[in-house]
Amino acid sequence: MNTYMPKADVNGKKWYLVDARDKTLGRLAVSIATVLRGKRKPVFTPSIDTGDFVIVVNAEKISCTGKKFTDKIYYHHSMYPNGLKAKPLGKLMEERPEEALKKAVWGMLPKGRLGRDMFKKLKVYTGDAHPHKAQMPVALVS
């Protein structure tokens, strides 16, 4: 008996377009991470990148439930003494709204080389315009 192992070919990758307007941050990140990993495909293999590309537009219009804009805090350390930086979600959304969605999706992908390759297939933009019209993306229904 032989076990079928799919090939990670570039030709089988589709492009999906997601409009983030009035979508909840976590729920949107789950559906994006599922597409990036390829879990919607019948040939899903955990150790092979079988996922598709995802384009997200209107990242600045993402909503959150509760008081997350003030209470959810992202931390970063510069590795120097007294180098802990803290930034609430509301301030992050004002400065770089695409970064909040990227952080949420990155937390749902596997860590390591495979996860980094999957994460590179995520393209997030503020506003309606994106430079990927030639790929003819299909709207993602989540």
Question: Can you walk me through this structure?
Answer:
The radius of gyration is 17 Å and the shape is globular. Helix 3 packs across helix 4 (97-106). The chain is built from five helices and six strands. The chain has 142 residues and is α/β, with parallel strands linked by helices. It has a domain at 15-63 and 97-139: Alpha-Beta Complex (Ribosomal Protein L13p, Chain: A), CATH 3.90.1180. Helices cover 29% and strands 18% of the residues. Helix 1 links the parallel strand 1 (15-19) and strand 2. A four-stranded parallel sheet has the order 5-2-1-6, covered by helices on one side.
Quick synopsis:
Helix content is 29%, strand content 18%. The protein has 142 residues and is of the alpha/beta class. A four-stranded parallel beta sheet has the order 5-2-1-6, covered by helices on one side. It has a two-stranded antiparallel sheet with strand order 3-4.
Helix fraction, binned, reads 25-40%
The CATH homologous superfamily of the domain at 15-63 and 97-139 corresponds to Ribosomal protein L13
Uncertain residue segments: none
What is the tally of helical segments? Answer: 5
CATH topology of the domain at 15-63 and 97-139: Ribosomal Protein L13p, Chain: A
Radius of gyration: 17 Å
* Strands in their spatial order, largest beta sheet: 5-2-1-6
Name of the top-level CATH class of the domain at 15-63 and 97-139:
Alpha Beta
The global form is: globular
Element order: H for helix, E for strand:
EHEHEEHHHEE
CATH architecture of the domain at 15-63 and 97-139: Alpha-Beta Complex
Average predicted confidence as pLDDT: 94
> Quick one: how many beta strands?
6
